[in-house]
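Lecture 7, part 2: worked example. A protein chain together with zinc ion.
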Amino acid sequence: MEVIELTKALISCQSVTPKNDGVLDLLEKDLSNIGFDCRRYLFSDSNTPDVDNLFAKIGSGAPHICFGGHTDVVPVGDIDAWSFDPFNATEKDGKVYGRGASDMKSAIAAFVCALKEYIENNELKGTVSLLITNDEEGPAINGTKKVLEEIYKNGEKIDSCLVGEPTCPRKLGEMIKIGRRGSLTTTIKVSGKQGHVAYPEWTLNPINPLTSILDALCNLELDQGTEDFPPSNMEIVNISSSQGATNVVPQTATGVFNIRYNINHTKDSLQSMIQEIISKSNEDGKYKIDISFNNSAEPFLTQKGKFTNIVKSSVDEITGMNSALTTTGGTSDARFFKDYCEVAEFGLIGETAHQIDENVNTHDINNLKDVYLLILKKYFA
Ligand SMILES: [Zn+2]
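Predicted complex, written out as structure tokens:
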């Protein structure tokens, strides 16, 4: 099958972020051969590597559906633990093994092959494009976000986006994602006064207020979730203090926590809530407390309607499942598309993504191609 061959060819490029190792050339050549207009976008920024991206387009006018994907992969980890060479895709017992098999080179191959089949047999009444970045697993600074900014500057308009991330937990067809939670990381640094543990009257221990702030935050019930979202969730990810000894009260203590939040909150509402808890704990101003926020994603939800119905009915028809429209999991580049168009995500099983011996069923890759083909047929019907 052509789709398996293309999957293997994509996996054989060692495209660990930010290096693309020819993977975008390979795609560009394939898409150019079937009439796509391909444009490459190499972006640079301070303190982050340069990254190459591909925007390929065929047809004209509305409706315009864009496939969003990434060719970069995470590092292989302990190479000796792999059963097969992670960059020489191997088929065994109906599975393809290799880095990027699940996340998400097979899905790109599936979409490209579905497209070829669609274009061969139908007259395209609208536009199909692929926005493929090599910066999704990394900092995501020189990737999808900048390509979208650039193509919109040049007058592009996308109506709907289908992201090919692996969305299914165990079986193909279980899950379609129509939104994602936001992600806010907060760092709190409390400065006290270092000194001898035997003389508390001469010291100010920064760990005390830090732990009570974190405790207050941990005990908050942020919300109970919505029809489409699980409850917002806070996790402490790091607590540390300045180096000392067992008889020294440290000078500073730092806590870091991440909140995955749904549409009941905004980054501003969460930040003011956090700030209020911190000010309350330090009413006498004894401690110096520095707070820094990094909001890497805003929550979003695609309105259920024609597009989500097309995706769901195509998935269900091909896989025989009754797929769920969900918002679970981490962030993806859907967070950038959502500022421009409606977006839904459907791809393979994500269970082995980023793992040693990453693999997917060849049968699932073929079915995914059929799902994508049916989506195209219904989208342009
Ligand atoms: Zn991915």
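Residues 70, 103-104, 136, 165 surround zinc ion (CB under 6 Å). The chain has nine helices and 19 strands. Keep this in mind for problem set question 3.
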